[in-house]
Amino acid sequence: MSDTQFYADPTNSIGYLTRIAFRSFSRALEVRTSPHGVSSGQWRFLRVLWREDGITQRELSRRVGMREPTTVIALKSLERSGFVTRRKSEEDRRKVHVFLTPQAKALEAVLLPAVSEVNAVALAGLTQAEIETLRKALTLVGRNLAADVGEDTPTDSVA
Prior knowledge:
By secondary structure, this protein is mostly helical. It has a single domain (3-148), classed as Arc Repressor Mutant, subunit A, CATH 1.10.10. It has 7 helices and 2 strands, in the order H-H-H-H-H-E-E-H-H. Strands 1-2 form a two-stranded antiparallel sheet. Strand 1 (84-88) and strand 2 (96-100) form a beta hairpin. The N and C termini lie far apart (36 Å).
């Protein structure tokens, strides 16, 4: 069987299986975050900012792995929700820094346990060794594909 024939069945494609898993992770996480007014799209940004508040908009975009125009749209949504404020840098007026509001900071303790819960559900039935192998394999796959298109590997994930 040729590679073309093999990949004609989507369940043989790692890309297809990864996309299905990603969508399931996103939905499972959003079920837990949406009662608090946080969408899966907003979650990615909050999670990075909880680790380092006040980074530039460009750095935030890089860490989340999104293009800057997409980040601008997401940040407008986060501002409307009362989760972030943006301020121009005092040193370099071209740079915009993103800061969490007290409301968003308080959500960290409420929402971070959702990541643990979603991962526990997703990884049920796998051994610790299988989980570590999966983690390493997915990291390498991400690096390979990012390098192929000349991009940095994002330093954040959905869950």
